[in-house]
Amino acid sequence: MPELPEVEVVRRGLLRWVAHRTVADAEVLHPRAVRRHLAGPDDFTHRLRGHRMGTPSRRGKYLWLPLEDTGQAVLAHLGMSGQLLVQPHSAPDEKHLRVRVRFTDGPAGDTELRFVDQRTFGGLSLHDTTPDGLPDVIAHIARDPLDPLFDEDAFHRALRRKRTTVKRALLDQSLISGVGNIYADEALWRARIHYERPTATLTRPRTLVLLGHVRDVMNAALAVGGTSFDSLYVNVNGESGYFDRSLDAYGREGLPCRRCGTPIRRRPWMNRSSYYCPRCQRAPRAVS
DNA sequence: CAGAGATCCTGCAAGC
DNA sequence: TGCTTGCAGGATCTCT
């Protein structure tokens, strides 16, 4: 499940293999993959044709490739199971191939870009960019914690203002972007904070410590090329990450906490799961 | 208006 | 064996 580190690995792959190449042709094999491009698949492919890709950028889990001389950018979100693969033309189509982009030239002239997505939560679309280069439809996405301009004070003030719980806040992309279910559980475990702690109870030092752990766990994942829990995720060249081997909480139900040995618990939460150590991460009040 | 919950989608695994 | 059910979950929509 791609979160910020995985998306960043993909961005670096695009920088190496796709940036500065000119689109010869694009092909949409499943309309749902471009559903956020409201003008439809034909408009999507038509607008790509003949334009050169610029340098890829990322905010949180979104990444985009500027289309030179158009004022627009190709926006990508991998959703749950999306992959951007650079493949030789000769490679057989993947089972869940949704979009193919061919190029006229470039450093890897015998390759094409493929968007592959089993569960079709992800997709590609074209959008106007704001003066700072951001696609207009993601203006509401907050900066991510690896962004040098991320505002820690503003984040903490927002937490104090909210009447919600800390994990919900970590997953709220308008407060802090790039954090998904896996790294939220990992950062909370490292910070010894229960996922249902009300955000209004966090002191400023506690918020800063939590942010530090969010960054640490993301940087650790980045260092090994992203994580892959269910093998659906691979990076832009098809390599899996290895970070899943060093997860401390997520997916470890019943296994001993690496700090205190208490079995890790899994609790249903927002149609998904939260993993935590019941001893290290004490519940606030009546929550079990 | 903020916050909580439902929903989309597919493949795999578990259980009967 | 073959069916049903549950689970994975980011972003968006709907409801309270």
From TrEMBL:
Alphabetical UniProt keywords: DNA damage, DNA repair, DNA-binding, Glycosidase, Hydrolase, Lyase, Metal-binding, Multifunctional enzyme, Zinc, Zinc-finger
Domain of life: Bacteria
Protein family according to the UniProt entry: Belongs to the FPG family.
Subunit architecture: Monomer.
Organism this protein belongs to: Streptomyces sp. SID14436
UniProt cross-references to Gene3D superfamilies, sorted A to Z: 1.10.8.50, MutM-like, N-terminal
EC numbers on record: 3.2.2.23, 4.2.99.18
Positions of the Formamidopyrimidine-DNA glycosylase catalytic domain: 2-122
Domain (FPG-type): residue spans on this chain: 248-282
InterPro entries recorded: DNA_glyclase_Znf_dom_DNA_BS, FPG_cat, FPG_Glyclase, FPG_N, H2TH_FPG, Ribosomal_uS13-like_H2TH, Znf_DNA_glyclase/AP_lyase
Necessary cofactors: Zn(2+)
Residue positions binding DNA: 96, 119, 162
Pfam families according to UniProt: Fapy_DNA_glyco, H2TH
Protein name as annotated: Formamidopyrimidine-DNA glycosylase
GO biological process: base-excision repair; response to oxidative stress
Catalytic activity entry: 2'-deoxyribonucleotide-(2'-deoxyribose 5'-phosphate)-2'-deoxyribonucleotide-DNA = a 3'-end 2'-deoxyribonucleotide-(2,3-dehydro-2,3-deoxyribose 5'-phosphate)-DNA + a 5'-end 5'-phospho-2'-deoxyribonucleoside-DNA + H(+); Hydrolysis of DNA containing ring-opened 7-methylguanine residues, releasing 2,6-diamino-4-hydroxy-5-(N-methyl)formamidopyrimidine
The record's free-text note on cofactor binding: Binds 1 zinc ion per subunit.
Function text: Involved in base excision repair of DNA damaged by oxidation or by mutagenic agents. Acts as DNA glycosylase that recognizes and removes damaged bases. Has a preference for oxidized purines, such as 7,8-dihydro-8-oxoguanine (8-oxoG). Has AP (apurinic/apyrimidinic) lyase activity and introduces nicks in the DNA strand. Cleaves the DNA backbone by beta-delta elimination to generate a single-strand break at the site of the removed base with both 3'- and 5'-phosphates.
